[in-house]
Amino acid sequence: xxxxxxxxxxxxxxxxxxxxxxxxxxxxxxxxxxxxxxxxxxxxxxxxxxxxxxxxxxxxxxxxxxxxxxxxxxxxxxxxxxxxxxxxxxxxxxxxxxxxxxxxxxxxxxxxxxxxxxxxxxxxxxxxxxxxxxxxxxxxxxxxxxxxxxxxxxxxxxxxxxxxxxxxxxxxxxxxxxxxxxxxxxxxxxxxxxxxxxxxxxxxxxxxxxxxxxxxxxxxxxxxxxxxxxxxxxxxxxxxxxxxxxxxxxxxxxxxxxxxxxxxxxxxxxxxxxxxxxxxxxxxxxxxxxxxxxxxxxxxxxxxxxxxxxxxxxxxxxxxxxxxxxxxxxxxxxxxxxxxxxxxxxxxxxxxxxxxxxxxxxxxxxxxxxxxxxxxxxxxxxxxxxxxxx
Length: 390
Description:
The protein is of the alpha+beta class.
C-alpha cells in the first residue's frame, strides 16, 4: 500500500521576522514622535512682555521686527489697551499682613524662568545681615533690618486729592474727546499728569488706621547706586522677597510709605517736579518683544532693544526723591509690584509709583490690569517686613 506524501507546511520563521520587524518599526516611530514632542515642549514661549501706556504722539503701530532667534514672547496689546488710566485702589477695606498670598500657592520653582536665578543671586547681596547702615540717611531703621526703613503712623485709607493744573497733553486730549455736552468719551493712552494739587489733602475716612512695618529703602536689589531690577513678574517678586525673609508690600503699605501722614500726592510734595524724581522722560516705543532679564542679556538683539528703551537711574541717585519716612524712588524710575489683598489669582498683582516715562508717577494710583505672570521693561519691586515689637 503506497503512502501519500506528507504535505510540509511552509516555515513560520519569516512571518515572525516580519512581525518583529514591524514591531521594531512601530517602536521606532513612537520613539521618534516622543523625541520630537519632547524637543518642541522644551522651548516653551514665555508670557508676553508688557508696556505701560504710550503718549498720544506714540500711539502709531511700531514697525514689525523679527524676534530673537529662539522665539520671543508674543507682542503686547496695543498701547491704547495698556493705558495708564487705571482705577485707583479701593480703600474701603484696609489690607493686613494676613491677606498676603501663600508662596506655596504660587508657581513651582521648577517651572519658573531663568530670571529667578538672577533674583536669587541678588537676594544674597540684599540680605538684611549685609544691610547698609542708615547713618546719615533720612528716616529710621529702628525695629527693622539695616537695609529697611521704619514706617510708623496713622494711615488714611480714603483721600481726596484735587488737581489744580494738569499737563497740557492731558488737557488737549480731554478737549479732543469731549462731546457737545461737555462729557469726555472714549478710551485714551494719555496719562493723567497733574502738575499741582490743592493743599492740604483731605482724609475722607472716618478714622485713620495705625500702621507699623518695615520697607526697603531702595528698589530691588535694595542697594544704593545700583540700577533697579526690571523684566520681573509679580510671582518672581513674591518669591525673591520671601527668599530674604521679607514679603512683597501691599497697596496700603506702599501708599503710606510714599505719602506719609500728610497724604502727599508725590513723595516730595504737591507740585510735580521732574528734577526731583526720575519721571517725565520722553517715551520710546518698544519695537521688539523682550525676554525676561537674564535670557534677554544672552540675546544681542533683545539686549540692544532693552538698552535703547532703558532710562533708569541708580537707586538713591536723586536725593530729593525721598518720602517723608526716608524711602527712595517710590515715584518714577521703575514701576513696583504690590499685593492687592482680597483678590484671587491671577488678579493679586498691582503696580505702583510710576516709572521714568510721561506717566502719572504718584503715590496713590494702582495699575491693576497686569496679571501675575506679566513682566515688562518698566516693572520692578521692593520688599516689606513686619517691624519688631516696640
